[in-house]
Amino acid sequence: MLGTGWGPAHPGSNTGINIATRVGYVGLCTRGATSALFLPTMRVLLDSLRSGNWRSLLACFLYFDTGFSVWVLYGPLAPFIGKNLPMTPAEQGFLVAVPVLSAAILRVTLGNLFQSVDGRRVALMGIGLSALPCIVLPFLEQPAYNTLVVLGVFLGVGGASFAVALPMAGSTYPPKVQGLVLGLAAAGNIGAVLDGFLFPQIAARFEWQFATAAALPLLGVAALAVWFWASDMSPKSGKILPPLGCFLLTFVGMIALVLAVRAGWLFGAKPGVLLLPVAGALFAIALLPSRYRAVFGERDTWVMMLVYSVTFGGFVGMSSYVSTLLTAMYGMSKIEAGLFMSLLAFTGAMVRPVGGWVADRVTGVKALLVILTGISLCDLGFWAFELPRQGAIALLLVLYLGFGLGNGATFQLVPHRWKAKTGLMTGVIGAAGGIGGFYLPVIMGLAKEATGNFQAGFAVLGAIAGLALILVVSLRSNWSRWARPELSDQVPFSGGALVEH
User: Fold this and answer.
1) Distance between CA atoms of 163 and 183, rounded to whole angstroms?
2) 149-158 confidence digits (pLDDT tens)
3) Helix axes 145-159, 54-71, angle to 10 degrees
4) Which residue has the higher pLDDT, 118 or 190?
């Protein structure tokens, strides 16, 4: 039995107790770290929830939570899939990255569809599409790699729920609590916790294909909640068929693109993987109406996209890859790595509302200056030092705290900066986060294949976070003019929807 770095593993030792002890260590670190944060009082939280439709907020949370679960489904199952389907590190990285990328691209056109169609209808359509892989895979005895890649695009529709869940949740609340409300809705990324706890356990007892079916009851609960509780009070404009056609065309186009990359038709295999997000994003943007494409001419759009590619991209990308990382670096068992993945994801998800709450009080700009500094230093720490297992887990914990707080702080800014385009900008900026999540496992896989370790990959990630920090510092004065929470009270609140003046 492999040693753990927490003490040698002796023959006859109780593995369950060992894992519980290690999990307890991470839980203790989590409690200690989160207790140091300033949490909103219960009275403030309840008053904030009563200021809008809390049932709709809960439905949006469940919709995003279950969507997130199916979105990163391949992550904790990757070691099991690799046992039956031999893959290179780069191929394994690409497999877990495809759902992340498809969600990123689909968020753009799904956010555009939300601008014209009731969010409840869009949500139910998304739940149905993301459920298809969970229905199909249990019937496939030995799925081919290309089949898994295509089904990964369907799983990505679950992650695209972000572009609908957040603006629909915020549409029934006033501007002054947008940071907290959007943070609570987006805390649905706690769905990654279910992946780490539930799916590896089922895969260890049965075939991994049957583990995917466990997501179906969760999706059913989300569909019922959306049907009975969700309410979309955001303003709508335009006809339904054009944005629906854009979404479906993007969906089919993503399937074609990933298969083209697999066949080496897009500038060769490895260059094609790196250029795939660019091709997909350009395709989705080209389908948007010209009045919405104008946001890409704004400097703030690109900076906010980069920031979110670091924070949310780091969260979802690392959640998709950390099981592979821990088994490769420290010889953890697949189930043990899944448990750690769950606890890390739980940490990042739970502090996201805290990030939004803090940003409501000090502005997202000030919060991001501290958070991006921490993320960059953590990544560079992995690059500079060969950490023992205890040190790596502790640093990953701090990294996930940064991801979660940064996600909340970033989206506190969005409804203040783009008041009448929140749905579209949620999709656009969310897409950038997904693209960041796509590149993370790809970069780590390529680094492992080229150098034999992951340190070069962490160096790249640290440099990108550093660049985002520099840009936010340079725009600090400009952003502070519209990011101060007290200015939000001057914006009229009509019918639960933010309106632009």
Assistant:
1) 14
2) 999 999 999 9
3) 160
4) 118
Taking the CA atoms of residue 190, residue 133, residue 139 and residue 87 in that order, the dihedral angle to the nearest 10 degrees is -80
Burial label for 341, CB within 10 Å (0-12, 13-18, 19+), is buried
Assign domain 52-483 to a CATH class.
mainly alpha
Chain centroid to CA 319: 8
Highest mean pLDDT among 167-171, 225-229, 355-359: 225-229
DSSP codes of every residue in 394-438: HHHHHHHHHHHHHHHHHHHHHHHHSTT-HHHHHHHHHHHHHHHHH
Cα gap 292→21, rounded to integer Å: 52
Does residue 105 contact residue 281 with C-beta atoms inside 8 Å? yes
Q: How far is CA 368 from the centre of its chain?
A: 18
- Only one residue has tokens 């946001």, namely 295
In the structure, how many helices (H) and strands (E) does the chain have? 23, 2
379's torsion region: left (phi>0), alpha (psi -120 to 50) or beta? alpha
If we measure between CA atoms, which residue out of 267, 407, 320 comes closest to residue 99? 320
Task: Indicate the pLDDT class of residue 470, thresholds 50, 70 and 90.
Answer: very high
Task: Calculate the alpha carbon distances from 427 to 92, 166, 369, 378, 454 in Å.
Answer: 27, 10, 24, 28, 31
What is the model's pTM? 0.71
Least confidently predicted of 18-32, 237-251, 352-366: 18-32
Contact 143, 88 (CB under 8 A): no
Q: Is 16 exposed, middle or buried (0-12, 13-18, 19+ CB in 10 A)?
A: exposed
Where on the phi/psi map is residue 113: left (φ > 0), alpha (ψ -120 to 50), or beta? alpha
d(CA 78, CA 326): 12
How far is residue 226 from each of residues 26, 50, 58, 107, 165, measured CA to CA in Å? 34, 19, 9, 19, 10
Among the listed residues 364, 344, 65, the one whose alpha carbon sits nearest the alpha carbon of residue 226 = 65
Task: For residue 494, give the H/E element and its range.
Answer: strand 493-494
Structure tokens at 461: 């990630």
Q: Distances in Å between the alpha carbon of 454 and those of 44, 239, 273, 344, 391? A: 44, 48, 18, 19, 16
Summarize pLDDT for 415-458 with one digit per residue, the tens: 777 776 766 777 788 778 878 888 888 888 888 888 888 888 89
**Cα dihedral 143/148/154/156 (nearest 10):** 150
Both tokens of 189, joined, read 């990324």
